[in-house]
Design a protein that fits this description.
alpha/beta; 6-stranded mixed β-sheet; 5-stranded mixed β-sheet; 17% strand; binds (2S)-2-hydroxybutanedioic acid
C-alpha cells in the first residue's frame, strides 16, 4: 500500500514535469548587434529591420539584440568586443577598419573619390568590395555586407568656403589616416575622437568643427552647436556589416542561410533609405535655424578638391596603389 502510493506520487510528479520538458524550446541563439548611431539613421533603421525579419524568419530560434547609440561600446571597444566574442555583429564605418590592420578600407575615405551612390556601388557591390571584405577573415571577422550612409558635410563655427578658412581649425575625425591627411591638406588640425564624444567636444570647444553625413549631424544634435554647415559632399561615409567569424561558422547551417537572406534584404532596405534619410535630416537642420548653410561655388569646390588631392597622393602607398587605381577606374576619379 505504502509502495503503491509512493509510485502514484512519482507518476503524478512525472506527469507534471514531462510536458514542460518535452515542450520547452531550446534557448534561442542570441546575436548582440552593437552600433554607435541613433536609431533614426540609415544604420539604426537597417539594424532594427534586420532584427525584425531575422527573428520572424528563424521563428524564435534567433534573437537579435540591437544596442544603438554607443550604449554598449564606443568605436574602438566595439571592434575589440567583436573579436573577443562579447558581441556578435557590428556595422562600423569603413573609416574604422585600419586600426585593425586592414588599411585598404581607407580607400573609401579619399576625398571626392565618389561623386554619387552609383559610383560608390560599383565598388561596394562589385569585385573590389568583395575582395576587401575577404581581407577581414585573417582578423577573425567575417564581412557580410556594405550599408550606405551618405556624403559628408563640413561644419564649424566659422564659414568654411575656401581651403584657407580651415587654417588652425581643430576638426574631429574618425580614426583614418586618410581623413587626417584630408584635414591637414587644407591647414586644419585633425583630432581623432569617438563618435559618442563629438557633441560634447563641439559644445565645449574641445574641437571647432567636424564632418559627417547630415543624418549623423542631425540625430546627434551637432547642428545645435555648429554655426555653419558647408554642403560640400567632399567624401563618403558608409559601413561594413561584420560578424565574429568563429560564431558565424558555428551557427547551424540552416540558420546561417536564413540570416544571410535576411542580411541581403536588410542591405537593400538600408541602401534604399540612406539618401532620403540624409535629405530629410538636412531639411530638418535647415528648419531648426540653428546653423547657416553654405553652398560652394564651382570655383570653391574646385579649390577644395585640388587641395585635398594631397590626401590621395600621400596615401596611395599606404592603401595600395593597385587598389586605388582599380577604384579610380571604377569611379572615374581624376584630380583637378
Ligand atoms: C563617425 O564616427 O563619425 C561615424 O562613423 C559614426 C557612424 O557610425 O556613422
Amino acid at each position: 500500500m505504502k509502495l503503491n502510493s509512493c509510485f502514484k506520487t512519482l507518476l503524478i510528479a512525472a506527469a507534471l514535469t514531462l510536458p514542460i520538458t518535452a515542450l520547452a524550446a531550446p534557448a534561442p541563439i542570441v546575436i548582440k548587434f552593437s552600433h554607435v548611431v541613433a536609431q533614426h539613421t540609415p544604420k539604426g533603421q537597417a539594424a532594427d529591420y534586420f532584427k525584425k525579419i531575422a527573428e520572424e524568419r528563424t521563428k524564435g530560434r534567433v534573437k537579435i539584440e540591437v544596442y544603438p547609440n554607443s550604449q554598449l561600446y564606443k568605436d574602438k571597444e566595439e571592434m575589440e568586443a567583436l573579436q573577443l566574442g562579447a558581441v556578435q555583429m557590428l556595422a562600423p564605418s569603413l573609416a574604422k577598419f585600419a586600426p585593425l590592420g586592414v588599411k585598404e578600407f581607407e580607400v573609401f575615405d579619399l576625398p571626392y573619390i565618389f561623386d554619387n551612390y552609383q559610383e560608390l556601388h560599383k565598388v561596394t557591390q562589385g569585385p573590389v568590395g568583395a575582395k576587401l571584405l575577404a581581407k577581414l577573415e585573417a582578423k577573425g571577422i567575417h564581412g557580410l555586407a556594405y550599408w550606405d550612409n551618405g556624403f559628408k558635410v563640413m561644419s564649424a563655427n566659422k564659414p568654411l568656403k575656401m581651403p584657407a578658412d580651415f587654417k588652425g581649425q581643430k576638426m574631429r575625425i574618425q580614426s583614418s589616416k586618410v581623413l587626417d591627411a584630408q584635414m591637414r591638406s587644407v591647414g586644419a588640425n585633425p583630432q581623432v575622437m569617438a563618435f559618442s564624444e563629438v557633441y560634447q567636444a563641439l559644445q565645449t570647444g574641445v574641437v571647432d568643427g567636424t564632418e559627417n553625413p547630415p543624418s549623423n549631424l542631425y540625430t546627434q544634435k551637432m547642428h545645435e552647436v555648429q554655426k555653419y554647415v558647408t554642403l560640400s559632399d567632399h567624401g563618403y561615409l558608409g559601413y561594413a556589416v561584420i560578424v565574429n567569424k568563429k560564431f558565424w561558422a558555428g551557427l547551424p547551417a540552416d540558420i546561417r542561410t536564413i540570416l544571410e537572406g535576411a542580411m541581403k534584404d536588410a542591405t537593400i532596405y538600408a541602401n534604399d533609405i540612406a539618401k532620403k534619410d540624409n535629405e530629410e535630416a538636412l531639411a530638418a537642420v535647415k528648419k531648426s535655424g540653428k546653423s547657416q548653410f553654405i553652398t560652394l561655388t564651382p570655383q570653391e569646390r574646385t579649390a577644395w578638391k585640388k587641395a585635398m588631392d594631397k590626401a590621395h597622393k600621400d596615401n596611395i602607398g599606404r592603401i595600395g596603389s593597385d587598389l586605388v587605381q582599380e577604384v579610380y577606374k571604377a569611379t572615374g576619379y581624376s584630380p583637378n
